[in-house]
Amino acid sequence: MKTANTYPILKESLIFTADVIKYSEILEKENKKPIALKLMQSGININSFLFQAQSAWRDEDLKSKLLKAKISIEEVIYWLKQSQKSNYINVDNNLIEKAEKLAKEINSKLSE
Hints:
Blueprint: H1 7-29, H2 33-54, H3 59-85, H4 93-111
């Protein structure tokens, strides 16, 4: 049985996702619903995949779930940066920095 101790990353991810959801709510109020939905879904997916990785029985399942979490955090970073570049929304750089830190931690877990 192979399980991963992703609890510290999962906890950090939950906090990050709460920030993304708050940000998405602001976007919805500004009538920017498409990007809000993209960010929210990707943020929620991160947590879902990290939770599933934590309870993985096989190495293949663990790596698969961590890879999906990595893809989800990269999607969040992509949409935040694209929106920032296009001046579509005013993105807090702190949110991008948190996302990039979380991405590094997930990559580190993938490398173990």
